[in-house]
Amino acid sequence: NNLCAVMLQQENANPERIKHFAEVVLEIDDTNEKAWFRKGQACKLLKEFDTAVDCFQKAVEFSKGKNKEAEKFIKECNVHLEGRKKKEKKMYEEMFKARSSDDPKEA
Fold first, then answer.
1. Predicted confidence band at 101 (pLDDT cuts at 50, 70, 90)?
2. Residue 46 Cα distances to 18, 41, 77, 103, angstroms
């Protein structure tokens, strides 16, 4: 946990390694609030927002609601997820719009 915290503070942090180290701690103690939080931070850096939300929710659960920073990160991740959904929706709408205009059956 402390190693993960130190690694997260470095400029050239390696989120994959941080995630791995947090997972090692969770293999030993799957109720470790700090390990869930650190894994969430690593996943957030990796843009794995779904997994990050799950991890931060576990951190909140195991802290009995005292980890306010995890709650803040959940909100941030949800904003990113919403943005991603909007982009995907727009992309698919454009794809289907272009496809239907190219369809000779509809002409």
1. low
2. 11, 9, 12, 39
